[in-house]
Amino acid sequence: MKINFADLILFENEDFLLVNKPPHLATLDERTADRGGSVLRLAKEYNSELQAAHRLDKETSGVLAFAKNPAAYRHLAMQFEHRQVTKRYHAVTNGIHNLDSISVYLPILALKNGTAVKIDRVEGKVAETIFNTLKVYRGYTLVECIPITGRMHQIRIHLSCLKAPIVCDPQYGGEPIFLSTLKRKFNLKKETEEQPLIQRVALHAFSLSFALMNGEQVRIEAPYPKDFEVLVKQLNKFGV
Q1: How far apart are CA 101 and CA 144, in angstroms?
Q2: Phi-psi bin for 29: left (phi > 0), alpha (psi -120 to 50), beta?
Q3: How far apart are alpha carbons 67 and 239 in whole angstroms?
């Protein structure tokens, strides 16, 4: 599927460009042989000066910031370092959870193979995430996640620690979500296997708040991509 980079743009000025990253596309080129490109590669075709200011997991969709010049890159990098950037993610989790500014403060250690993490109170790096329930459904919850630190898989493992793993995240205990579990009357054609409502970890980077070069604070929001939107629509329709 050909992606038109210009269609992804959420915000652009002379210093920064923010896009709505599609799911299943890596932020940076993967170390292994070419596996379908990256957002950075598309960005460089659009403007060769662009540098990614942070990254999102391959499966995660949502707002991703690029800097257009070294000064802008430094400016945003310093805000990330001093935790002055507010990142808000939306996740659909298994189970019913009433989270009201719940903070999970558990250190995270990346496993040797680099594909997963675990909680390690001795060797782990400091990690904190704040969680708020946005909407409760029958057996599922839409959660706002605000990571204070930026560790790998931080939101996923911290939700798992709350016994609220993200839907379709088997790595951290998340189960797939099927329409048949939401809909009381559900008929599946014979000889066909039902597909989950979403084919990836149900996590979307919803907004990014930071200061522009002139000090003006902006909050850039990324609309849900199609798969996440369909999931939430079905939950609103059949899960309440």
Answers
A1: 10
A2: beta
A3: 41
CATH superfamily for 5-239 is Pseudouridine synthase (3.30.2350.10)
For the annotated catalytic residues, the residue numbers are 57
Give the C-alpha distances (Å, rounded to integers) separating 155 from 17, 62, 92, 135.
25, 14, 12, 18
* CA–CA–CA angle 179, 183, 187 (5° rounding): 80
Residue 12 three-state SS: strand
Domain boundaries, the chain: 5-239
Give me the pLDDT at residue 1, please: 66
State pTM to two decimals: 0.94
pLDDT tens digits along 113-139 = 888 999 999 999 999 999 999 999 999
How is residue 86 written in tokens? 């507010």
